[in-house]
Amino acid sequence: METVLVIGAARSGIAVSKLLLKNGYHVVLTDSNAIKEKTELESLGIEVFDGGHPDSLKEKKYAFIVKNPGIPYRVPFVHYFVEQNAKIYTEIEVAYRYAKNFNYAAVTGTDGKTTVTTLLYEMLNRQKKSLVAGNIGMPLCELALEYTDEDYNVALELSNFQLLGIETFRPHVSTVTNLAPDHLDYMDSLEAYYESKMRIYENTNADDYFIRNVDDENIVKYAQNIPCHVIDFSLKRKDVDLYKDDKYAYYKDTQLFTLSDLKIVGEFNCGNAMMASCMAYLMGVSLFNIQEVIREFSGVEHRIEYVDTIDNVRFYNDSKATNTHAACAGLSAFEKNVILLCGGKDKHISFDDLKQYDGVVKKCISFGQTKDKFKDIFTSQMSVETMKDAFEKAVLLAKPGDIVLLCPACSSFDQFKNYEIRGEIFKQMVHAYAAKRNEE
Question: Which residue intervals define the domain Mur ligase central in the entry (predicted)?
Answer without folding.
Answer: 107-280
